[in-house]
Write a structure and sequence with these properties.
The chain is α/β, with parallel strands linked by helices and 398 residues long. It is built from 14 helices and ten strands. The termini are far apart.
């Protein structure tokens, strides 16, 4: 019997993986933090490890480095399950010797088990399931497969039901923690609230991914990455970043209310336009959108951008203010006269971060405002909110 060690601080997620691996015929141990994980490594001697990167006490990256520092574990398969927006940690995990890195938001327990079996097979270890039909009894084999499929469907359905029932309490907790972060009287208190908020969002993302609630999982992943950035670099905690976090948490509430509608589970394709006369600024916005797996078109000339908007439906616009030929405020005022763009979200991205410019952005028809220099992940969070919200509103009209 192959042995699996799961290093995961979320008890619910850990138990789900423990049960799934046990049903599939594996012997399983769970560690809720990195230190315990390392202790079990040496006593349990697993054949493979499932490792979260965001852990208390020591990070998953540090666990990964310690695993590879011991000769007997140099080739041990270590499957990292984490947040794809935490690119820095993922790169460190790869460098430290991770076998594979998987997204919690997009990977089901069944897929993880298949990957573990593949890795064990490559290492010459038997990987049979918990029940094996005789080779001369195809009907029994098909019956076993059908039974397993039905059991998986019931398991997934029960998970979704439990998850959905927990969402109102989850949203209430997130809002309380956000208010605690905003109203904190000093940096230490604020960071404590921020860390707890990040931990709750991390748990939400993992649970949403397991239950197949893809949009909730991916939105939560992006918010978690923003919170982690703010926690590690408190100087980035500003009115703008906190407003973005608040908007995202409110929108998570919208996602919670949509439930498990099949058509709402994938991140939709979107036409996004980035208008900025500076090439470096355009590339920065484009890069931020790519982090959210959103594609965009970059245009430097506001006049050419207006012509494009006159001919094409755009779902979201990121717009600079200070441009030659036509300011961003003027362009926004003009595009609001176009029937197709009366309500298209327009987010001003500018270094002109004063009260008058904030007022002008609203007066000209702008939807939101983000100041340069901005955090890539903050812009990614904003984009996800507007793209998904736009799709929901279009679906209502349809």
């Amino acid at each position: 019997m192959n042995k699996i060690l799961i290093v995961e601080d979320d008890q619910i997620v850990a138990n789900i993986y423990r049960n799934k691996f046990s049903i599939e015929g594996f012997q399983v141990e769970v560690a809720l933090d990195g230190n315990v994980g390392l202790e079990l490594m040496r006593s349990f001697r697993p054949d493979a490890v499932i490792l979260d990167l965001v852990l208390p006490k020591i990070t998953g990256v540090e666990v990964m480095k310690k695993i590879r520092s011991e000769p007997c574990f140099e080739k041990l398969p270590v499957i990292v399950l984490s947040n794809t927006y935490l690119t820095g940690m993922l790169q460190e995990a790869w460098k430290a010797g991770a076998t594979k890195c998987l997204s919690k938001a997009n990977c089901t327990p069944k897929q993880v088990i298949e990957i573990v079996r593949s890795e064990l097979s490559e290492n010459g270890k038997p990987t049979g399931g918990s029940v094996t039909a005789p080779s001369n009894a195809p009907s029994a084999k098909n019956h076993t497969a059908h039974t397993a499929s039905v059991a998986d469907a019931k398991f997934q359905g029960d998970l979704q039901k439990t998850f959905i029932e927990s969402l109102p309490a989850t949203l209430s907790t997130l809002r309380v923690l956000l208010q605690g972060t905003i109203k904190a009287e000093n940096e230490a208190a604020r960071l404590k609230q921020l860390n707890e908020l990040s931990r709750r969002i991390h748990s939400l993302s993992a649970n949403a991914g397991i239950t197949g609630m893809i949009q909730i999982a991916q939105m939560a992943e992006a918010v978690e990455a923003l919170l982690k950035e703010l926690y590690e670099k408190p100087k980035n905690i500003t009115a703008s970043t906190l407003r973005t976090v608040a908007t995202a948490i409110d929108f998570l509430g919208v996602l919670f209310n949509r439930g498990i509608a099949p058509e709402s589970q994938e991140i939709p394709e979107a036409n996004i336009l980035v208008i900025d006369d500076e090439a470096i600024s355009r590339r920065a916005v484009t890069y931020a959108l790519e982090k959210a797996k959103l594609k965009c078109i970059g245009v430097e000339d506001p006049v050419a951008a207006y012509k494009m908007l006159s001919e094409k439906k755009i779902d979201l616009i990121f717009l600079d203010v200070d441009m030659p030929g036509m300011t961003g405020f003027e362009l926004c005022t003009k595009l609001r006269t176009l029937p197709a763009h009366k309500k298209t979200p327009v987010v001003f991205v500018t270094s002109l971060n004063d009260f008058d410019n904030r007022t002008n952005s609203t007066m000209s028809g702008g939807t939101d405002f983000i100041a340069k220099p901005f955090l890539f992940i903050e812009l990614a969070v904003k984009a996800l909110v507007y793209v998904l919200r736009g799709r929901f509103e279009a679906a209502k009209k349809g």
